[in-house]
Write a structure and sequence with these properties.
361 residues, Glyco_trans_1, Glycosyltransferase, Rossmann fold, 2 domains, glycosyltransferase activity, alpha/beta, EC 2.4.-.-
């Protein structure tokens, strides 16, 4: 039986059920495959320097003692996000000769290395010393190889995948009825963290540009309001708009209903490692409009969705109008093929192959 520790700076809790849910889903997938998986993770999304310092000190202390206790029986460790979380796997290899895999999610190489020379140095060190590097998108793979000098032979593209037992095509009318939404409204939906980098302000501006063209056009912004200051700004922006609603985080089963209820799903991110939430929307069948950043061009290729320019409300408005005006089946063959490529059984086989190759016996 493969025994490993998963380190992550995001993991859900009862108080924050969607915080890093994709990591928890992958852990459960590994356990379902018969692996012995322990988790050392941060479950609190609160911001601030003191809170962050306390969270990471706790993570590193718990991680160190777990490595020490299990040093003789672990096959490998798997870190989600490179720096600073990946330092635990790095030191586990240095101290106890435990191989490790690290998954790159996007911001950990797009943003974190730019914060300081130390962050850049550690990011490169962790990536180069890893026995295997997983990126959730093709562009991230290119960035890891080109910008950090990692051998292309040990970089693998594996998304976090879509749970098809949760995200699947369901009747739109029934979903709206379940959520107590009007059957007459034309509904735009965003799901994700309510932060500036997700392009929420662009989305609100795009909505204002087209609201008068569609009768009963509504916008629902669903997600965690981790940044209180920005969330307040968003509330101020939508205060005078009748059909714009800010909804808190929801369980995944409820999110699937929200997606099914929508006429168009919009992901206006300024940067995006892969765009997992867009994949989940595709699995439900709703038309997707996304910005031309990160992994979204690859995910929405072959007319699987509509790409627009980031930081550009007018382009976003045009993409939304295009999605609303064209008639299409909610679940096309192209969408089905892409969803199957990222299904849990496919991803489980890829992960098992990597673990067997790099893990010690």
């Amino acid at each position: 039986m493969t025994k490993l520790i998963v380190f992550s700076n995001m993991y859900p809790s009862d108080q924050h059920p969607t915080y890093g849910i994709f990591v928890k889903n992958q852990v459960q997938l590994l356990r379902d495959e018969g692996m012995d998986v322990s988790v050392i993770a941060i479950e609190d999304p609160s911001k601030g320097k003191i809170a962050k310092l306390q969270k990471y000190m706790s993570l590193f202390i718990r991680g160190f003692f777990s490595l020490l206790k299990n040093r003789k029986t672990l096959n490998l460790t798997h870190a989600h996000y490179v720096f600073p979380t990946g330092m635990l796997s790095y030191w586990g290899k240095r101290w106890f000769n435990i191989p490790y895999v690290v998954t790159v999610h996007g911001g950990d190489i797009d943003q974190m290395p730019k914060k300081s020379k130390m962050a850049r140095k550690w990011t490169e060190r962790i990536l180069k010393k890893a026995d295997a590097v997983i990126t959730v998108g093709e562009k991230l793979k290119q960035d890891v190889v080109r910008e950090f000098g990692v051998s292309i032979n040990k970089v693998h593209v594996i998304s976090m995948g879509v749970d098809q037992t949760v995200f699947y095509v369901m009747p739109q009318e029934l979903s709206r009825e379940s959520l107590r939404l009007s059957k007459e409204e034309t509904m735009l939906l965003y799901v994700g963290n309510v932060i500036r980098a997700k392009g929420i302000e662009d989305l609100i501006e795009a909505y204002k540009q087209i609201a008068y063209t569609k009768e009963k056009l509504s916008l629902y912004i669903v997600g965690s309001q981790k940044d209180a200051q920005f969330a307040t700004l968003v509330k101020d922006r939508i205060e005078t708009l009748e059909r714009v609603h800010l909804i808190g985080p929801q369980p995944q089963t409820t999110l699937a209903k929200w997606m099914s209820a929508a006429d168009v799903f919009v992901l206006p991110s300024h940067h995006e490692g892969f765009g997992l939430v867009a994949l989940e929307a595709m699995a439900v069948g709703v038309p997707v409009v996304g910005t031309n950043v990160g992994g979204l061009p690859h995910l929405l290729k072959d007319d699987a969705g509509i790409l627009v320019e980031p930081h550009n409300p007018s382009s976003l408005a045009e993409g939304i109008e295009q999605a609303l005006n064209r008639s299409e089946e909610r679940y096309t063959e192209v969408k089905q093929r892409i969803v199957e490529e990222h299904s849990y059984p496919v991803l489980a086989e890829k992960l098992k192959t990597i673990y067997q190759y790099v893990g010690r016996s």
